Amino acid sequence: MQMRKLIKPLVFVLALLPFSVLVLRILQNNLGPDPVQELSLDTGEWALRFLIIALAMTPLRRITNQIEFTRHRRMLGLFALFYATTHLLVWLMFVLEFRWFAIAEEILERPYITVGFIAYLILIALGITSPKFMVRRLGKSWKRLHKLVYVAAILGVLHLLWILRLDIGPAVFYGSLVALLLGYRAWFSFQARRS
Amino acid sequence: MLIKKPSDIKPSEITPEHVYRNRRQFIEDSGKLLLGAAAASTLPSVANAQIGAGLMARAPASMRRSPPAAWWADKFANIKPAPNSAPFNTGESLTPYEDVVSYNNFYEFGMNKGDPSSNSGDYKADPWSVEISGEVAKPGTYNLEDILRPHDLEERIYRLRCVEAWSMVIPWVGFPLADLIKRFEPTSKAKYIEFETLVDPETMPGVRSRFAIVDWPYREGLRMDEAMNPLTLMAVGVYGDYLPPQNGAPLRLIVPWKYGFKSIKAIVKINFRETMPDTTWVDLQAQEYGFFANVNPAVHHPRWRQDTERRLPQTLFSRSRIATEPFNGYGEQVASMYEGMDLSRYF
Predict the structure, then answer these.
(1) Closest of A94, A26, A85 to residue A50, by C-alpha
(2) Strands B129-134 and B267-273, how do they pair?
(3) Taking burial as the number of CB atoms within 10 A of a residue's CB, which of A11, A125, B23, B271 is the most buried?
(4) Do B111 and A167 touch (CB under 8 A)?
(5) What is the largest CA-CA distance in chain A?
(6) What is the pLDDT of residues A84-143, one digit of tens each?
(7) What is the pLDDT of residues B202-217, one digit of tens each?
(8) How many angstroms separate the most distant Cα atoms in chain B?
(9) CA dist., res. B145 & res. B69, Å (int)
(10) Omega before B217 cis (within 30°)?
(11) Chain A closest CA to B2's CA: distance in Å?
């Protein structure tokens, strides 16, 4: 029982580790010759990773019968939002350099930014409705709303695919993971309906 | 009228010429002695930051490479330093050697910027030969030593503008491509020139990737007048040293007014032809990359803007975003070749 209580803070600290490493690298000026690019890629990739990790919790619970997995689902999802926010802030601060008028143009004219931004809006909506009282208040529509997480994941992979120039390996990797998780969910609900 | 006699300088106060000529190295070495190894690791960049007339930029002593074969050392013994003025010197701060050799696009070695330097340990730049073919009087396969023999090496400090909107200032070592072309005696049908990069799955892990959407070998090309332009350089070195694999050893092209991807690396084939060759990036994404690929702030890449560039190296809180110049600032030398062409169409 005591061990159980330790798991949550442990997951929290682990999830914060990539961010701490980034902060350390910023302080040491150890981001290479093109730090903005490095920060953008790193924060974006962690946002996608956490989204996929959060998505994997329910299937893992079903497969292992360990309820522990779903107890951390919300926190992991919020970490995906956290890293996506960092990613967006890096873009705003260091790429657009707060040229606010350019935001609309970039979002409208560059498809990869459009899909990335939509994915971010979804994560915001899911983040706002993640507290327990919101779950209660929204009732049945909460579940429907939170199915959008798959849309966010697919858009995230598309966003990545569109910035790759020559080797689409990473997009294939994350795309297969999302497809696998989505496939499992479809298969599971199909089985549930049949029985 | 009072005429002042200049005060005599004692011979003992005059710096010996060899020390003067190597003064940057001298400063670097004394710095190392004084400040110890930790501080010295940053000194080469400082010492190389500005380069004057008559002195060549040198790679930091600790990072210098051994010659790929013995004859290379003789070839590199006599390099003419860059002049003090445009177009063969930009007058801007050089991008430090450490960054030039660690931040690269060379997809044959992987797709991240650090991959080419970390994944090229097995790569062999010697022995090397180049196949010359097509519309020339003297086709054939030539050893690199024979290719380089008649050419004197010179240093040229050029801006390198990547299509990804970052840029560097790099002191290359090489010789004009025009001088090489003349030796093979192109026929009147030679209107374009096509280059190919080595493909060696054994030593190039990127070529083994299943998800690379490219049809190796990497191919690039120039129109004949572009190839003959005095700015166009065949490079064999950088910072006074032999090219590292990640920078295109042993032989690469430098076309400073075009986006970096035109400056093809590790050349094994040069083909002279009558028609415009297919090139790797045009094959991949014709809407995004054109054959000419002249640096042009007015024509944006569909996925990002091209009117500014990140001059590297940057730190997060001193980011030098500078305006991109038409033809990368070499308009005076090259713009006339494109007169009458719609550059938004032929990008």
Answers:
(1) A85
(2) parallel
(3) B271
(4) yes
(5) 58
(6) 999 999 999 998 888 888 888 888 888 999 999 999 999 999 999 999 999 999 999 999
(7) 999 999 988 888 999 9
(8) 86
(9) 10
(10) yes
(11) 58
Nearest to B248 by CA among B224, B220, B275: B220
Task: Specify which residues B214 forms β-bridges with.
Answer: none
User: 3-state DSSP call for residue B159?
Assistant: strand
Contact indicator for B236, B68 with CB cutoff of 8 Å: no
CA B123/CA A94 separation, integer angstroms: 37
**What type of residue sits at position A94?**
F
DSSP state string for A6-67: HHHHHHHHHHHHHHHHHHHHHHTT-S-S-HHHHHHHHHHHHHHHHHHHHHHHHHHHHHH--T
Q: How far apart are CA B257 and CA A50, in angstroms?
A: 42
Report the chain B residue with the minimal C-alpha distance to residue A41: B112
ipTM comes to 0.84
Whether B166 and chain A come into contact, CB under 8 Å, resolves to: yes
Structure tokens of B218? 């990497």
Instruction: Determine the Cα–Cα distance for residues B310 and A95; give it in Å rounded to an integer.
Output: 10
Q: Is the pLDDT of residue A52 over 80?
A: yes
Question: Amino acid identity of B187?
Answer: T
B2, B140, B184, B274 from B137: Cα distances, Å = 72, 10, 6, 14
For residue A174, the surrounding DSSP H or E stretch is: helix A169-194
Radius of gyration of chain A (CA): 18
Which pair of tokens denotes residue A31? 């981001």
* Coil, helix or strand at residue B307: coil
pLDDT range class, residue B13, cuts 50, 70, 90: low
| Confidence (pTM) | 0.85
